[in-house]
Specification:
40% of the residues lie in helices and 8% in strands. By secondary structure, the chain is mainly alpha-helical. The protein has a single domain, classed as Glycosyltransferase (Alpha/alpha barrel). The strands form nine sheets. Strands 5-6-7 form a three-stranded antiparallel beta sheet. A two-stranded antiparallel ribbon has the order 1-4. The longest helix has 20 residues.
Length: 472
């Protein structure tokens, strides 16, 4: 079975320790909030659209109920039987269970029980520099973990980004589970433990590295820190906020290293933005942080915020599909969604058409494409729902009308399909299922934003990196 998800995304993108006390901001207790959630998106849904989104969310929810380990709480990377767990998929799962509570699919007690098992597993599992089968090191975790063994799989990396996604789920959990039951008290205590022991020095990139002072993508017990850093623009935006809020040395220097590699382009008239071709890079950070109105000094100088940047990136994909310079089957104004997905692979090649397997796919206009081979992802469309409600709803309904049951399975939408190759994935990937469900929920209720934004780590991170609300 191939290695998928954000390990492949990392390949595509090449594609000092401070323990914080409650007083320094790792506590989930109430604090003055400079930054806040703006709640659900102001968009009126028809009854038909409400019913459609209910169905999509419920079916997607089943992935996380049926593909998690009943004792460890970790979630399978993909629906394949022999798939290991993904720590990023597990991070997305933590707020997914709360969606189930709010939608009355499971009880609060059930959700708290699964969440507690998850946090216990990570809090009490071994961390070691020398034991290659340990679960992690310096508070960070290996990307893939055996579902049964609970140990590192595939000699994979200690992952900064995947640990970050896991911990964003933990941040959500410690704010959502605010009641005084024994389980919810323990959730908060374990979250404090997990968030308070990060030693970011393991991912330090010095002045001689490829991306100086950024956060390295990975560390391996066999060879140390990888000489590739999280540089802009990618899904790594949230990682710098998290790091700045949990004690990374010189957070501003690290963030400036990230900002230095931004690319600002105008792929089509009126659509100038920081480009990154695959849509997931414009969606993952927004799953947890409400960036509406928020800009750092770089974007403040451009006159937009990060939410608007993602809207423009989405509209750019639509324009690219209309233009369809490579002549793929099916592309039009309501058929787009290019992101990291499974793909047909080279065995489907014919004529001048070439197809990739799992890859980061995307377009920031015809002059900036990556892995763009006619493959479409419903999750890419729906994860942009908060940015482009009317367009995303019309697009997913158009996909339903044109492809229907061919792209729909036991957990909702299959990961991807390719009309040119006449191919459908027939699999489900946790880090695609999670953002789709959660961004739909943010659109409908603001649930994840409401609980993450008030956390002191997020407050401190945003302030440290000089985020401000744009004033018009």
């Amino acid at each position: 079975m191939k290695k998928s998800t954000s390990y492949s995304r990392t390949i595509f993108i090449i594609s000092t320790a401070l323990i914080f006390s409650t007083a320094l901001g790792c506590s989930a207790q109430k604090s003055t909030e400079k930054y806040s959630s703006k709640g659900k998106i102001d968009y009126k849904l028809s009854q038909e659209d409400e019913k459609m989104l209910d169905t999509i969310q419920y079916k997607t929810f089943q992935y996380f109920m049926k593909e998690y380990h009943s004792e460890k709480g970790i979630v399978r990377d993909r629906a394949e039987k022999n798939s290991p767990a993904s720590i990023a998929a597990t991070g997305f799962a933590l707020p997914v269970y709360a969606v189930g509570v709010e939608r009355k699919w499971i009880t609060r007690e059930q959700a708290a029980d699964i969440t507690l098992k998850t946090l216990r597993f990570f809090a009490y599992s071994s961390q070691s520099k020398t034991d290659s089968l340990a679960i992690g090191y310096k508070g960070f975790y290996y990307h893939f973990i055996g579902m049964e063994s609970g140990k590192r799989e595939w000699n994979c990396e200690l992952s900064s980004i995947d640990t970050g996604l896991l911990l964003m789920g933990v941040i959500f959990a410690r704010n959502y589970y605010d009641q005084n039951s024994p389980d919810e008290k323990e959730i908060r205590a374990l979250a404090e433990k997990l968030l308070g022991r990060l030693d970011w020095s393991v991912f330090y990139m010095d002045e001689n590295s490829k991306q100086p002072f950024t956060i390295s993508m990975a560390w391996f017990p066999e060879k140390g820190t990888t000489n590739w850093g999280w540089h802009g623009y990618t899904e790594g935006l949230f990682l710098y906020v998290l790091a700045a809020g949990t004690g990374i040395d010189n957070p501003e220097k690290a963030y400036n290293g990230w900002l230095r590699t931004y690319t600002w382009k105008t792929p089509y008239p009126g659509l100038s933005h920081i480009t990154f071709p695959p849509l997931f890079g414009h969606q993952f950070s927004h799953t947890f942080i409400d960036f509406r109105g928020l800009a750092d000094p770089y974007l403040k100088g451009k006159g937009i915020d990060y939410f608007e940047n993602s809207r423009l990136a989405t509209l750019t994909q639509q324009q690219y599909a209309i233009e369809n310079p490579k002549g793929w089957v099916g592309y039009d104004s309501l058929t787009w969604g290019f992101t990291a997905t499974d793909g047909p692979g080279s065995k489907y090649n014919f004529g001048d058409k070439r197809f990739e397997g799992y890859a980061g796919r995307g377009s920031s206009g015809k002059d900036e494409t990556v892995g763009e081979d006619g493959t479409l992802a419903p999750y890419g469309v729906l994860s942009s729902l908060p940015f482009t409600p009317e367009l995303s709803l019309a697009t997913i309904k158009n996909m339903n009308a044109n492809y229907g049951e061919k792209i729909w399975g036991k957990y909702g939408y299959f990961d991807a399909f390719n009309p040119t190759a006449k191919w459908v994935s027939h699999d489900f990937i946790g880090i695609d299922q999670g953002p789709m469900l959660l961004m739909i929920e943010n659109f409908r209720s603001g649930l994840v934003w409401n609980y993450v934004m008030k956390d002191p780590i997020i407050q401190k991170g945003l302030e440290t990196l000089h985020f401000e609300y744009n004033t018009k």
